[in-house]
Amino acid sequence: MSKVYIALQDNDESRYIVEAIEEDNPEATVIHMPAMIRIEMEGRLTVNRETVEEKMGRDWDVQELHLNLITLGGNVDEDDDSLSLHWNE
Amino acid sequence: MPVNAITPDYKGEVLDKQENFNGNQVVYVGWDHHMMFCAAFAYPVPPEMSFKTLLHEVIPEAFSLHEEFSSVNWETTEWLLDGQPFIPQMDVSLKEQGVNHKSLLRFQTPELKGFQNAGV
Amino acid sequence: MAKKLNIKDKYRLLTRDLDWDFSYEDRKEAFPFEEFEGIKITDWSKWEDPFRLTMDSYWKYQAEKEKKLYAIFDAFSQNNGHLNVSDPRYVNAIKIFLTGVSPLEYQAYQGFAHVGRQFGGVGARVACQMQSLDELRHVQTQIHAMSHYNKFFDGFQDYSHMHDRVWYLSVPKSFFNDARAAGPFEFMIAIGFSFEYVLTNLLFVPFMSGAAHNGDMATVTFGFSAQSDEARHMTLGLEVIKFLLEQHEDNVPIVQKWIDKWFWRGSRLLTIVAMMMDYMLPNKVMSWKEAWEVYFEEAGGALFKDLARYGIKMPKYAETIEKEKEHISHQAWWTFYTHGHAAGFHTWIPTDEELDWLSEKYPETFDKYYRPRWELAKKMEAEGKRFYTKALPQLCTTCQIPMLFTEMDDPTQICYRDTVYNGDRYHFCSDGCKDIFEDEPEKYVQSWLPVHQIFQGNCGGPDVENVLADFYRMNLGADNMDMTDSPDEKRWKQWKGVA
Predict the structure, then answer these.
(1) Is residue B33 less than 8 Å (CB to CB) from chain C?
(2) Is the CATH code 1.10.620.20 the one for domain C7-328?
(3) Do chains B and A have 3 or more beta-carbon pairs under 8 angstroms?
(4) Residue B37 distance to chain C (closest CA, Å)
(5) What is the pLDDT of residues B23-78, one digit of tens each?
(6) Contacts of residue B16 in chain C, CB cutoff 8 Å?
(7) CATH, residue A18
(8) Fewer Cβ within 10 Å of end Cβ, chain B: N or C?
(9) pTM value?
């Protein structure tokens, strides 16, 4: 099984997004590098709007992810409630 | 198909045809297993130039920076011309012995192992 | 209260439903570039857009990114951010970025504007239009960020003039010219897929992380801001390839050929990034080899496993590419070091500490093949004879890089390949570059090879110094030569109050 990955700028907003990802994807590996945070996981990784909103304490649009996104790997599925990455194998 | 183009029978202009070099032709010279020089050198020279002139007046300026260059025995040096074994005739012109426009000459000195014997 | 549209509906209404049918004009005449490459599209409506970004949201988010970015540029500039970089040698990597990479952003803007007009499907057109605007933003923000360095360091003053003329900059320039001179589908596989999906990651992720690690706040900020658009570009690249492969089975071999070509072209182009990572970042983040393993082998491997169900295989030269990660950064920096008189930035011998880091990161190759080159350079420098090459190098007809690459099973031997076409001989650095030429010789006989152009008298002269000073517009003695004793170094010492 291949790994999907997402990298975010290391800033205050991403901190909550990373917390939400860790909570919803307990198998994910979080790697801290200078100025960025890379998260990788085998199979599928999901960012849920609800969890991010809970962490941030405010409304959050899934498309706001674009502001802090650096790169990603995998097929993207995006709707109003979540963004997920997966590989077809 | 020589090119995938929207124009039928598209032909490209050959930028490096010999006529463009003002009477010269380009000859490349490389010294195998001597990586001090990152690549073979390119020289614009008259096709009528003798091999001896190329060897003793053109290429030493760059190659002589290598401390082994003065030890090269040109009597035993092995040559490749465009990948084929080649025995140069010193007093014959480049053109007459098949050293043509954009030909590559490589010389090999197996007894000289390069700086620190590392092929440098 | 009106119900808020979900993003799928909103996207459909604001893109697909804005398209029109051709009732009195021939559709083929409206999209004349769509067929000549042999790609068969049966139904554009099958195009999927994973990021359903509409124009209004696009402007909203891009404006937010810009506000953040320019606030940081102001802060960087007001606080003399250039004094906080790890070492003035680092700034030379940014000179390469401005002269070699930023103009490619402009070419990408032009390329995507063109294909965004030529595709018959509205989803593809909208995505290309946004990417085109993104690329224009990237070139603008990069010029703005680096203009600060131009006030304090040499070599930044004439980047766009240099991009069009300087010998080593013909490599990135001709890469994009090749892609833009191709049809719209090949352009998308070249830039949208091969370049954006796999290769730009290596420049904009580990290198930018390295910029942060070297105290360059301006560069890391524009890098990551650009890269936040890149995630959308990558998704477009992946979408276009899946779409082409699903549309018709006849597309598979055409797409495979383009993948083989552009992964090879791209890996050659990235040689310069390899060198920037291994030799030009004083504070190290990861080696080129490590970055290659994460972003090419691991990420690319996953991607090609995903595409295997369409019959797509790993790029043709993947095995050679895998071996080259041990070598190319060292071969490239040696080339620039020995051509330091003809480069628009400074070069230097790595410090002993850096040489040891390279040995540690490249245990199989560095001490055996590359450390001796630096020992030689040190010896010559100690004798007062800093090594500058005295003749011009042979270039590869396809990638235009000096023929500096070696055989992978014999790393002290240059790799020579050639072919004869219409009576003329052409030389190549590799099987990959040779195959690309042989597939479309009428394209590559037009290569503007800087060394040959100098010989033809098209770059001024008569001496190399005249070419450098007049045709390239380098300030000789300031922009070029060794870092040691350069005006850049002298100014830095003055600012820092060291002798």
Answers:
(1) yes
(2) yes
(3) no
(4) 7
(5) 999 999 999 999 999 999 999 999 999 999 999 999 999 999 999 999 999 999 99
(6) 424, 445, 447, 449, 452
(7) 3.90.56.10
(8) N
(9) 0.95
